Amino acid sequence: AVTIPVTAKIRLLPTLSATLELVSLIESCGVAALGVHGRTKEQRPNDPCDAESILAVVRHTSLPIIANGGSSNNRNSQINTYKGIKQFWEKTEAASVMVARAAEWNPSVFREGEKEDIMVVIHKYFGYAIEFDYPFNIVKYCVQQLMGSMQESDLGRRFLNCATMGDLCEVFGLGKEYKEKQELLGGQERPDKEFSEKVNKEEREGTRKRKIGEEVVTEMFCPFVRGHYGDNESSNLPKTLLLLFARQKELGQPKYVMEQQDKQFRARVRLGEESYGSMAWEKNKKYAEQGAALVAVKCLNITKDDIVWKQTKVDEQEMDKNVDVISAS
Fold first, then answer.
1. Angle 247-251-252 (CA atoms, 0-180°, nearest 5)?
2. What are phi and psi for residue 326, nearest 5 degrees?
């Protein structure tokens, strides 16, 4: 037994009767509340959310139900507003509502009235990031979610080319504030590579397994930061290390599969019988493949010392073979 509340979260099963049976079973286990996503596990964000089934669950159980899945895959949809989310909540008669993508795209959905201008939100976010010394990888990922298609603008392209927290702040006109805060913290700009290396020691404990069809993928949150690998040091890149490791171990060619959502990309790579993927969305396919390879390199403990180097250049075109593109789940 535990002394803290335990909650659970489910998606709808293929039939309402099966869903209600599962809810009854979960309720008998003594959970404090239950989140219900209004789609089945096979359905994707573009499929409609079944608010009627969530309502049926609410009326079936005495558990507090947290309605989920009401956001639209179109970030500019009226559904992704305070009013739209509240209407979804009321329609389901749930105890509360859970929001994911709509809040990642603009957290002002939680306030009444119109959403805040996204550039105002970004500048507020940078204020917190500078004040509390957020790491580069986290800040860049969060700002990517906020910017969306704005990443194709001149500002967006300069943002995507950043490799340090200082670079990000300069792009948004906050370089002076960032440097002043770093001086108060007692030194020069934090080396983000050292932060990444520190996180890497603990990352394997944060891996998760995700089943995609018949394939089980080991996933980690591993953004690929090109600036951490040197300008002319392709031998350091994760894809290079993974390809040479695969050749030496006779595991066959690593095969990459690409996901795309809102002009962002992430990938998974299959090596032998195992598959690996990054949960981080990237600005292009090449970075997404490097992110997937980075997860494999970490999970397999591959280092440059493991590679028998020959005086031959890795054929970049060969590494780009067998890449499929699919819509994001």
1. 75
2. -130, 165
**Mean pLDDT, the chain, as a whole number?**
86
Q: How many residues does the chain have?
A: 329
Q: Are strands 65-68 and 33-40 parallel, antiparallel or unpaired?
A: parallel
**C-alpha to C-alpha distance for 24 and 122, rounded to whole angstroms:** 43
Q: How far apart, in whole angstroms, are the C-alpha atoms of residue 46 and residue 100? A: 15
Say if CB 103 and CB 162 are below 8 A apart: no
In whole angstroms, give the CA distance from residue 177 to residue 129: 11
Alpha carbon 31 to chain centroid distance?
A: 28
CA distance 323 to 123: 37
Cα→Cα distances 108→80, 123, 188, 204, 296, Å: 10, 13, 34, 33, 37
pLDDT for 17 equals 97
Asked whether 269 and 289 are in contact (CB, 8 A), the reply is yes
Which tokens belong to 22? 């599962």
Query: Region 252-262: what's the mean pLDDT?
Result: 90
Which amino acid does the sequence have at 29? C
* pTM of the predicted structure, to 2 decimals: 0.64
| CA gap 262, 61 in Å, rounded | 37
**Secondary structure class of 118 (helix, strand, coil):** helix
pLDDT band, residue 329 (cuts 50/70/90): very low
- Spell 62-94 as b/e; 16+ CB within 10 A means b: ebebbbbbbbbeebeeebbbbebbeebbeebeb
* Residue entry with tokens 């009854």: 24
DSSP state of 34: E
